[in-house]
Amino acid sequence: MNTADIFIQQLVNGLSLGSIYALIALGYTMVYGIVKLINFAHGDLLMVGAYTGYFVLRAAGSSAAGMALAFLCAGTVCALLAALIEHFAYRPLRDSPRLNSLITAIAVSLVLQNGARLLPFIGPNPREFPAPETFPVRLGFFSVSNLQLTVILLSLVFMAVLSWIIGRTRTGRAMRAVSYDMGAASLMGISVNRTIVFTFMLGAVLAGAGGVLYASVYPQISPTMGTMPGLKAFVAAVLGGIGSVPGAMLGGYLLGIAETLAKGFLPSQFADAISFSILILILLVKPTGIMGEKVKVKV
């Protein structure tokens, strides 16, 4: 393959990977936008979604109906788990210093990882994900696998539905109101607790879907599989402007493309270093991210 072919192929790979990063980053940015919490346990919900999809596909098969059922079950399990985490781990610390919530989020992440390792039906050893059959799809002068095309299209659908929920529904208006001023929203009759729980659950649904998609493209799952995608999705959220939904989408795609281009033209060991170097660079040059806005705080 010549340089142009490698560039196009890696660009397609980047769009596929960036779609998954964007889905996970949306959960980070929505939770941060409302309760100013960096939920480092969010990446582990990807792992929960992947394992849920694994057991569903083992039982129902890797057909289109089986994949649809896997998405449904993964989203449901992750949403319920996120609601429990918010209620028992984060809500009691809502009025505490942010450092307390941050440390709790890291602890929840470790509990999910090590808890999964101890469960007899999961265990510490990696498993092969029953991904659907892969075949190339020719698009003009380049080809893309059916799985990559599915990842990109489904991610766009999920993000479009999220944008509609936030921008067009009553619950979405409540989310924006709580994000802007929690106290004033409560005085206007909005249930703050219900809105925050819904935000956690909505982000968890996207993480669960991202887990099934990620495991389909990279078909090996383990209890620690969510750590690196979760951290990179956090980088994507900061890159785009944490708290900004369009920024999370943009940041996910930019980070995915940067990572795959690095793997295509540089030794693959540099890919992770480049991802986190982008985080350092954006914090130095534009701490609010590409689409983030400066917030004035009264002292």
TrEMBL record:
Keyword Membrane recorded: yes
Cellular component terms (Gene Ontology): plasma membrane
Superkingdom as given in the UniProt entry: Bacteria
Family annotation (CDD domains): TM_PBP1_LivH_like (cd06582)
Transmembrane portions of the chain: 20-38, 67-90, 102-122, 142-166, 196-221, 233-258
Topology class, membrane: Multi-pass membrane protein
Protein name: Branched-chain amino acid ABC transporter permease
Assigned keywords, A-Z: Amino-acid transport, Cell inner membrane, Cell membrane, Membrane, Transmembrane, Transmembrane helix, Transport
Keyword Metal-binding: no
Subcellular location: Cell membrane
Coiled coil: none
One GO MF term attached to the UniProt entry: L-isoleucine transmembrane transporter activity
InterPro entries cross-referenced by the UniProt entry: ABC_transp_permease (IPR001851), BCAA_transport_permease (IPR052157)
Protein family per UniProt: Belongs to the binding-protein-dependent transport system permease family. LivHM subfamily.
GO BP, sorted A to Z: D-alanine transmembrane transport; L-alanine transport; L-isoleucine import across plasma membrane
